[in-house]
Write a structure and sequence with these properties.
Length: 88
């Protein structure tokens, strides 16, 4: 369900026949985003976002927002730890 919605959003952003926003430079931003982050810039799942999540957990500890550096198991419910995007 979420993967299908994400694909619709990607398709809508990539469609250039009609601007879906009032930003005249929307396509330039879209293309720059894809160039920088790849085609799947809204990745789902812990494994797909592990690098970014590690940074968040490190920064929250370094900045004193949490007393100890969190682990994935402390941050997410166990049933979500191995979820991955299911396309198709």
């Amino acid at each position: 369900m979420y993967s299908e919605a994400k694909q619709i959003a990607y398709d809508n952003l990539a469609t250039t026949t009609v601007l879906r926003t009032t930003l005249p430079w929307a396509m330039d931003e879209y293309e720059a985003t894809v160039k920088l982050m790849g085609d799947d810039y809204w990745r789902y799942g812990i494994k797909a976002n592990e690098k970014e999540l590690e940074h968040v957990m490190r920064y929250t500890h370094e900045q004193g927002l949490v007393k100890h550096r969190l682990k994935f198991e402390e941050l997410f419910h166990p049933s979500t730890l191995n979820l991955e995007e299911n396309i198709g």
